[in-house]
Amino acid sequence: MSRFLLIHGSCHGAWCWRDVLTALHRSGAEARAIDLPSHGSDPTPIADVTLDLYADAILDAIDEPVVLVGHSMAGFPISAAAEKAPGKIRALVYVCAYAPVAGRSLVDMRRAAPRQPLLEAIVKSADGLSFTFDPDLVREKLFHDCSDAAVAYAKARLDPQPILPQATPIALSERYASVPKHYIRCLQDRAIPPEYQATMTADWPAERVDTLDCSHSPFLAQPEALAALLLKAAAMP
């Protein structure tokens, strides 16, 4: 039986995987999602959140080896978790996520992209510790192909994103390299440019890269198709 742990991206929470979890459970898979520190119902103060804390929260949620899935920003914490405890992770799946490069931060990688389509939607907090998304732009940037009900569901739950984890360079070694990896590119993505997703996976085996013709939010736009690709990834050696 496939076992999944799903990790959300910036400003999101476990709530975003609702429909994907339903689809995975229907297939007979074991799957759950968690709130990262300071997100959703987790009470951790934003000022205390680090990339290491994200990784530790993920590992604390794993009792038996899982297929670890990360959306967007979560490419970094799932990779940091794999570096710390590769034996807990059967495979990493990046869903239109940042596939990290050792020694770089997520901020470094975002700046290396050929375009910055999400930048105008980012609103920094007064203390500089976090950011949110401009509610007037989230549909255009994140959810343009999602139903009105799905957009309302998401907008009511988006929360502040701590900046420090994204500004922290990641350390990766052969421990991380030993874990099998898969990538799901989203061809209509208006947050992480599709061409940059292609660049990040240019040297990956073709059979480990799939595509969905959707926005940055496949968990709401195409949850059944996303679940099918996760099951496909889990079935690979």
From TrEMBL:
The keyword Hydrolase applies. Residues 4-228 form the AB hydrolase-1 domain. The keyword Hydrolase applies. SUPFAM superfamilies: alpha/beta-Hydrolases. Keywords: Hydrolase. It comes from the Bacteria. GO terms for molecular function: hydrolase activity. This is Alpha/beta fold hydrolase. It comes from Rhodovulum sulfidophilum (Rhodobacter sulfidophilus).
